[in-house]
Design a protein that fits this description.
391 residues; 5-stranded antiparallel β-sheet
């Protein structure tokens, strides 16, 4: 009561008379004195009623007072939330698999987004959609299932993008023949579209009772980004950082990427044929802080996607996968190639070295692009939840 009346007095002090201000100040002081003296509940109640009478007599009423107060509370809450997001902890979700298996992007079964693979059809056919408590448990693990069966014969005519409200997908429709099918609250598909992941093609024919769509989508990790620490120190080598793509050639200019920082301004970087980084002539290994898991791979095994395989240069890629047509490391063609990081710039690499668009392709970027470091995974509830991915 005291704080509320004091706030209203502060708001109206410039339009109230001196008599009104004195009367309200006196009432506030009396109630404050009763509180400080440890007065009984009855005494406090009387002082509160007296202050209320004084306030009602001298303060000017507001139109739609309850609406005004609720809006004010909402604006304060939004301001606090935006302040936390801007200066302390920013939520961030990982759409791609470039940091797997440390942090996961959106994955699916099947996934045709990288081309048609005969094994994908078998994986789709073998996909079993759980029920009951298992379905609930998998939901907490980030798994969503989509299953649509054709009600009549027809061709796939359209797949609309999800209808969104703020950050939420509300529904998505697809048309087969003369029938429109609706997917309620579709999951985030990451960068690929639904048709890319599911292998759907316009004009594809489906018969009554046949599966149009049978898909399991696993949510990418959602985490908080620590925006405080780097105001007081520079990133340490090996920390997982989030940065803006602004000013980086060949990349979209309005996105945020997450990678592991591996080298900083003035350092000379090489990628050995043994899949280890060499910084200023010093080879990094599993004893290097923050690289314990990155270099935990078996050197007798080929580098594999979504498994710790160190870092590969272009020569290593061609040695193991001669038919791979996508250059992963054009700036590091072989072990002898040296890349010198410019002053006040960083280079970064993804832990999923066989599927990461990183500094091996586009080089270094300004240190000022860094917004923070990965801090805490808050969704989904897996072994990476919290600080589990640091283990």
């Amino acid at each position: 009561m005291r704080k509320h009346v004091q706030k209203l007095l502060n708001h109206q002090r410039d339009i109230l008379s001196a008599q009104a201000i004195a009367a309200i100040d006196a009432g506030i002081a009396e109630l404050q004195g009763a509180i400080a003296s440890g007065a009984s509940k009855d005494v406090l109640q009387k002082q509160m009623e007296k202050l209320e009478e004084t306030a009602n007599k001298w303060l000017k009423p507001y139109p739609n007072a309850s609406w005004r107060e609720n809006v004010e509370v909402l604006l304060v809450a939004l301001t606090v939330a935006m302040g936390i997001r801007t200066f302390f902890l920013q939520p961030f979700k990982i759409p791609t698999g470039s940091m797997q298996p440390t942090l996961f992007g959106v994955t699916s079964v099947p996934d045709y987004s990288r081309g048609f693979d005969p094994t994908m059809e078998a994986r789709r056919e073998g996909l079993t959609i759980p029920t009951g408590w298992q379905r609930v448990r998998e939901w907490f693990e980030g798994a969503s299932y989509i299953h649509i069966v054709a009600e009549s014969d027809g061709e796939l005519k359209a797949i609309d993008p999800p209808t969104r409200f703020l950050i939420f997908n509300l529904w998505q429709t697809l048309v087969v023949g003369d029938k429109t099918y609706t997917i309620w609250f579709p999951p985030d598909y990451g960068q690929p579209r639904l048709q890319d992941r599911a292998g759907l093609r316009m004009g594809q024919t489906f018969h009554k009772g046949e599966d149009i769509l049978k898909l399991k989508v696993s949510a990418g990790d959602h985490l908080f980004v620590d925006r405080v620490s780097y105001n007081f120190r520079a990133p340490d080598r090996g920390e997982i950082i989030v940065f803006e793509t602004r000013g980086i050639p060949t990349l979209p200019q309005d996105q945020f990427y997450i990678k592991r920082m591996v080298a900083m301004g003035g350092e000379k970087v090489q990628i050995g044929d043994d899949r280890h980084l060499v910084i200023d002539g010093k080879r990094l290994d599993s004893s290097t802080p923050h690289f314990e898991k990155v270099y935990s791979f078996d050197p007798k095994q080929p580098p594999r996607e979504s498994q710790y395989s160190g870092h590969v240069n272009e020569h290593v890629v061609k040695t193991y996968y001669p038919n791979l047509y996508i250059p992963l490391a054009p700036l590091f063609p072989d072990a002898s190639a040296v890349f010198t990081v410019q002053p006040e710039r960083y280079i970064v690499m993804g832990d999923n070295t066989m599927n990461s668009l990183d500094s091996r392709s586009w080089g270094d970027f300004p240190a000022s692009n860094v917004i923070g470091k990965s801090f805490f995974v808050y969704w989904p509830i897996t072994d990476r939840f919290g600080w589990g991915y640091h283990r």
